[in-house]
Write a structure and sequence with these properties.
Keywords: ATP-binding, Cytoplasm, Ligase, Nucleotide-binding, tRNA processing. Its EC number is 6.3.4.19. The protein is an alpha+beta fold and 439 residues long. It has 15 helices and 20 strands. Strand 5 and strand 6 form a beta hairpin. Helix 2 packs across helix 7. 30% of the residues are buried. The structure holds adenosine-5'-triphosphate (ATP).
Length: 439
């Protein structure tokens, strides 16, 4: 489609404040020019944002170029300084991109529309890259035209226009831009596809970019439908008294493909990246489908799926929890438990620790040790903590994480004030020390 002010405006997502992601390259130079023209005719607010990655030696010169261009348009430019370096083993391209998107996302105010300059050929490259990675529908949907992003929206108004139309527009308008030398580096997959593969395909199928983009559109529609189906399955399977937990029996009644869809959505909604397909299938077979009363679990880098008492639980990783940790506590100020929330103590009416015993003893906090026993307040006889936890239906993976408050080395309370030792418990009708645990 020919790129003109009218054809561009016709597809622009409605809004009143736009932030142009301006790298200084050809595509975003055209986008900024178009947005400034729209501003002239319709009075929208336009600001530009440039991300300074601090990686390439030219980064300072690019920032200066962007500032000069923005100045000529009379547009305010925010320069976001980020550390776009990758960690060993990560792709530098992906690390810079992730850091850039995070900083752009955080910079938006409510209602802002962030516009970026990806076009039809970028979309075709993205689809090919996703196919080569073996992506599922969500990946093949490639880049959406508009999605919620931070406090605002991310919108790509040039997706309908090809690289050639964008170049023609820039030349016609006499725009200036900078060329990033790394765009020619064919060690990067995207550059290889753009420079070697797509021209070959276009020699035989001139409409290749438009057709691939159309396929991405079909995938996007199907992916949206499946998301809605997954939400319906999840609403039906979620335990009413424990949001975030699924009722095993309901999940088991679904077909295998529905189970996979539901598991992926459940993990995604928790903000975790789904495991690879093979591992997801193991979760389905070994955790969901296994018969009997077993309590299987499967962990991957992003989390753990566990089955316990007819429910499925999803836990984020807990890297810094140390079961051998112990500390003295004044009881006056909250105590932070590494990787396990915090404790605080307050005087409250009702069951709790006798304030006199609390003040006169030496308080320490630790975790469970083999053979720990307790006589619960109001009950006769000592019981192993393990038995008390089982009796209360506490899932096994939470048992070692219950903080144990000791007075002079003897257990006074467990899990905040969930279990109180009779030897330290105050009279329940009086005001006592209540230990709260916020995991
Ligand atoms: N340094 C930058 N500062 C501000 N915006 C940028 C910067 N780099 C890129 N952008 C914005 O992102 C768009 C896409 O850039 P580019 O194609 O280089 O990114 P990419 O790494 O391939 O990411 P994507 O997959 O989103 O296209 C640009 O057109 C521009 O709008």
């Amino acid at each position: 489609m020919r790129l003109s002010l009218d054809s561009f405006r016709a597809g622009l997502h409605p809004g009143s404040t736009y932030r142009v992601a301006f790298s200084g390259g050809l595509d975003s130079a055209v986008l900024l020019d178009l947005m400034c023209q729209v501003r002239r005719v319709s009075g929208i607010g336009v600001r530009a944002i440039h991300v300074h990655h601090g990686i390439q030696p030219e980064a300072d010169a690019w920032s200066r170029h962007c500032a000069a261009v923005a100045d000529r348009y009379g547009v305010a430019l925010d320069i976001l300084q980020i550390d776009g370096r990758s960690r060993p083993g990560d792709s530098p391209e992906a690390a810079a991109r992730t850091a850039r998107y995070h900083s752009l996302e955080a910079s938006l105010d409510p209602g802002d529309i962030l516009v970026t300059a990806q076009h039809l050929d970028d979309q075709a490259e993205t689809l090919l890259l996703q196919l080569l990675r073996g992506a599922g529908l969500a990946g093949l949907a490639a880049m959406p035209n508009a999605v919620p992003f931070g406090a605002g929206i991310l919108h790509r108004p040039l997706l309908r226009f090809g690289r050639r139309d964008i170049l023609a527009y820039a030349q016609e308008r006499g725009l200036s831009w900078i060329e990033d030398p790394s765009n020619r580096d064919e060690r990067y997959d995207r550059n290889f596809i753009r420079r070697r593969i797509l021209p070959q395909l276009a020699g035989r199928w001139p409409a290749v970019a438009a057709n691939l983009t159309r396929s991405a559109g079909h995938c996007a529609e199907a992916a949206g439908l499946l998301d809605r189906l997954a939400d319906t399955l999840m609403a039906a399977a979620t335990a009413a008294d424990e949001p975030g937990t699924l009722v095993l029996e309901i999940v088991q009644r679904l077909q295998p493909d529905e189970q996979r869809l539901l598991l992926r959505r459940w993990i995604h909604k928790r903000g975790l990246r789904a495991p690879p397909a093979k591992l997801l299938e193991r979760i389905r077979k070994e955790v969901v489908e296994t018969a009997g009363d077993r309590t299987p679990m499967i962990a991957w880098a992003e989390g753990t799926v566990r089955r316990y008492r007819h429910r499925l639980h999803l836990l984020p990783p807990s890297a810094d929890f140390d079961a051998s940790w112990t500390a003295a506590w004044s009881g006056e100020t909250p105590l932070t438990l590494a990787g396990n929330g915090c404790l605080h103590a307050a005087l409250c009416p009702g069951p709790g620790i006798d304030p006199d015993k609390w003040r006169s003893g030496r308080i320490t906090v630790r975790y469970r040790r083999a053979g720990d026993r307790l006589e619960p307040a109001g009950r006769r006889g000592h019981h192993e903590l393990k038995k008390l936890f089982q009796e209360a239906g506490l899932p096994p993976w939470l048992r070692d994480r219950q903080p144990i408050v000791c007075i002079d080395g003897r257990i006074a309370s467990v899990g905040g004030s969930q279990w109180l030792a009779s030897e330290f418990a105050g009279a329940p009708e009086r005001v006592n020390i209540v230990v709260h645990w916020t995991p």
